[in-house]
Amino acid sequence: MDADVIIVGAGLAGLVAAHELTTRGRKVALVDQENAANLGGQAYWSFGGLFLVNSPEQRRLRVRDSFELAWSDWQASAGFDRLDDEDRWAVRWARAYVEFAAGEKRSYLDAHGIRLTPVVGWAERGTLRADGHGNSVPRFHVAWGTGTGVVGPFTRSAHAAAAAGLLTFHHRHRVDELVVHDGAVTGVRGSVLAADESPRGVSSSREVTGTFELTAQAVIVSSGGIGGDHDLVRRYWPDRLGSPPQHMITGVPAHVDGRMLAISEKAGARIVNPDRMWHYTEGVQNWDPVWPGHAIRILPGPSSMWFDALGRRLPEPCLPGYDTLGTLKHLRTDPDIARYDHSWFVLTQTILEKEFALSGSEQNPDITSGDRKAVLRSRIFGRGAPAPVDAFKRRGADFVVAGTLDELVAKMNGLTGEALLDADTMRRQIVARDLQVANPYSKDAQIQGIHNSRRFLGDRLSRTAVPHRLLDPLAGPLIGVRLHVLTRKSLGGLQTDLDSRALGPDGRPVPGLYAAGEAAGFGGGGLHGYNALEGTFLGGCLLSGRQAGRAAAEATG
């Protein structure tokens, strides 16, 4: 055989699985359709968010968290309703993941040299109900180095294993078929793609120059989801989210194409929960894209006002940073606005400077480089917006700036080419909101959330502006940001048991086949259920990749 185990997909989950296998002496063939520059996959481009429960960082900030609270939040968010079938293993993976996040995950990160920034973020605050979707407390930890800092230790492990003769890289090898012999998966066949030295993330050639076949005792599929293929996203778009947008922007590289899901299904594996997906409504076009349609998500603080395409303020819990899919559902099912593919943030320069962050390792050079002093200068003590945010304000196609609301609305209408927004209508809503900031209490849910946020030290220092009137000239200028739906994650995938063995339609493992990472719905075919709590995608790759590697090592020993 060519290896003990073949891993298809050299992203984070695949690299973690390779680490577990090679440290146990197994020989691994790592196969990926992209070149060596793309080792680490889309995790490399991530902000490096990691969901942890009752961490030292939380405790230092006086955040009281527990497994019980986190598991309650997870179950309420996931809404598992297919327990006898598609969610049978997903719910077990979910509990295992929350136990991991509340237990050994912190020491596991430490053991691999992954360090965390001291400020914990409060992402996905939810539906404003104790028994609803959302994080009750801040749990979003960011790794120093962002996504590069999470991927780095496992990339280095792969290179060391290759030097020791335990791992072989097969870059530019596209798997087209899983080889099945006597009911067991025994290898892969596919196409050798033309050499392409494109930089990381850039779309590469699909010219075929030859074929290949590799054999092994087991195959692990860790090839990611479908976010780079808008046709697949639309095919699986669920009715509960209304109609898919005619125009979407893309938050993942083009090679995130979902090919291996259908290929694995043909070999006997089962795809579950394909209608569960995680797309953002705060996407903006990138003025300096890496791949075609490359877009960025705004990571908003709680203070921007959110308006639909007709200039109507979105209802709670459709607030910045609260309920991702709830907001997407509202925008895509309201009959008055479903035909429009955009919405708007309206904010001040003061809010931009304090609250705006951008997803992606390349958009956060201070954290990505590990420069502690630069982080303090730009995010805590600095004046003005962080440089990447300011660049989008100046150069981004979706940003407009004005000294008055009338001028701002005119520029916003100019972006869409339609006079959909009325300045007087928007002014009435903004003034009503502004009247609520004169006191430390309010009947407005968003203003209540701002005060709640500023009670948390981490948000008060770096993520939440002092409450102020949007129409206060001293806080200006005013800024309008056109927001698009940005494709990102598949929450469903190949169904697996707790050893990451791929299961067939009969519920039994497909011999020799494992799945990990997004291809497996981050574990079990969808451990998030219907909603993610953020910071959970990289962690899902870590846990499922680890389980797949350990189980495959045991099976091939």
From TrEMBL:
One Gene Ontology molecular-function label: steroid dehydrogenase activity, acting on the CH-CH group of donors
Domain FAD-dependent oxidoreductase 2 FAD-binding: 4-538
Keyword Flavoprotein among UniProt keywords: yes
Keywords (A to Z) from UniProt: Flavoprotein, Oxidoreductase
One Pfam family recorded for the sequence: FAD_binding_2
Domain of life from the UniProt record: Bacteria
Protein name (database record): FAD-binding dehydrogenase
Organism: Herbidospora solisilvae
